[in-house]
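Researcher: Please translate sequence to structure tokens.
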Amino acid sequence: MDRHSTADEQVGHTVGVDVGGTKTATVLLDGAGRVVAQDRTPTRHGVEAVARGVADAVRRVLHDAHVPADRLVGVGVGVPGVVDPDGGSVANAVNLGVEGRAPLAALVSDALGGTRVRLENDLNAAVIGAAHHLAAAGEGQVDDLAFVALGTGLAAGIMLDGRLRRGPHQAAGEIGHLRYVPDGLPCKCGQTGCLERYASGSAIDAAWPSRTGRPAPVELFEAAAAGDPDAVRVREDFVGAVAAAVRVLVLTCDVGRIVIGGGVSQLGAPLLDALVAELERQAAGSPFLAEADLPGRLRLAPAGVPVGAVGAGLVGRGGI
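Model: Translation complete:
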């Protein structure tokens, strides 16, 4: 069964939980995939604490929406790290204080009295949520899609032919560790010059530290718009690196849509406009790139819509 087969059916309520390094977003979805309750809370760390935090968030959204627990079809949880969806375990989720491999789905299920819980990588959950949002926004069924997270690092969730592309080692979408600058900046992965050292929120933090306590990307883009030459240079370097990530995804997977998400995406139109301008500049000298229409494939993640949690809720239905 593919992800579309239950999109308009009343299949019962599901809860989706997107567990981030600092915040956990939770949504309650009705049978048509509409958000009927939301919750946002600081993330607890350590596998036992994460499981308790997820279970508590599930109970809160059910309470807020006056939905009894016996109407809950399932729970989906998106987490960073190497996820085994079939076994319900996650490994190397260091941002959550989870070392080694942990049976997170079973722990959450036990805390909820046996409710079915499905686990998925957070970016895979986000690409499912993004496809759901695009369909609801009138773009129709989107089967080939990438969700690019511009956050502390850089990675993508990929959907091809309506199905997640995980890869045999769960490494699909790790575009942040493609070498971008030969002999460039050192990366925590052990390589140098990785793309995420130039196309991520942490890359902006390093190149343009916040002066006022506001998010560094906001300060950078404002300073560049005001004509600060140093800010213009840093912005252009960042946008060029993100454009390289877009090219990689289109020219390897030919995804029809690329949704830009993560913390940096909160810049909104200034980020999208800068990316479109850079991709158009590159295409001006290449009929091949012009024909591929990379700018036309770009979308921003919707502001105020927790697509990762929505996608996790759809995972909770099963059949993804």
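Researcher: Any highlights?
Model: The longest helix spans residues 229-253.
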